[in-house]
Amino acid sequence: MTKRRPLTAREKIAQQNLRAIWNAKKKGLELTQERAAHQLGWSSQGTVGQYLLGRVPLNTDALLKFAKLLQVKPTDIDPDFQWGDMVSGQQPPNGQGHTNGFTITLDDEAPTLLKAELPQHVRDLVRLIIQRARDGSLTKEHTAVLKSSLVLMTGGGK
């Protein structure tokens, strides 16, 4: 049996936040670990327990799923989550841009970066990055590089 590595300090903070939010909201949301596992698309409550106990570090997919389930922003769980402010669990009134339970809009509720007057190809790239961040196919390292690139492309670094 392989011994798991201990969580980093940052991962511990995210786990502690997740646990605190879980404990505060589970009764009001009528959640058990078994119900949560079913709603999150996981095969057993053991997976939920592993995340809550900090035996497994939160990955992007798990973080976004827990945030949606617990009706909080990803940054409430992991303050360092770079796309947290761009990922909203709220469905806008017009229903525009709904993807995987999260929203991308270009109306008044849109992220500042998407509201800026940017060339269409840059806005399309931002949308793609946000979508990939939501579905868990980007690592945090990828998002850091992409965010830096966007800042340079849009002149935000001046």
What does this structure look like?
This protein has 158 residues and is mainly alpha-helical. The protein is 52% helix and 3% strand. It has helices at residues 9-25, 33-40, 45-53, 60-70, 74-77, 112-115, 120-134, 140-153; strands at residues 98-99, 102-103. A two-stranded antiparallel ribbon has the order 1-2. Strand 1 (98-99) and strand 2 (102-103) form a beta hairpin. Helix 2 (33-40) crosses helix 3 (45-53). The longest helix is centred in the first third of the chain and has 17 residues, at 9-25. The chain is elongated. The termini are far apart.
Taking all Cα atoms into account, the compactness measure Rg is 17 Å
Terminal-residue CA separation: 52 Å
Shape: elongated
What order do the helices and strands follow? HHHHHEEHHH
> What is the strand arrangement across the widest sheet?
1-2
Question: Mean of residue pLDDT?
Answer: 74
Helicity range: 40-55%
β content, as a range?
Answer: under 5%
The structural class is mainly alpha
Q: If helices are DSSP runs of H or I spanning 4 or more residues, what is the number of helices?
A: 8
> Uncertain spans, ≥5 residues at pLDDT below 50?
84-110
Largest sheet: 2 strands, antiparallel
Count of individual beta strands: 2
What structural keywords apply?
158 residues, 8 helices, two-stranded antiparallel ribbon, single chain, mainly alpha
Topology summary:
Layout: H1 9-25, H2 33-40, H3 45-53, H4 60-70, H5 74-77, E1 98-99, E2 102-103, H6 112-115, H7 120-134, H8 140-153
Antiparallel strand pairs: 1-2
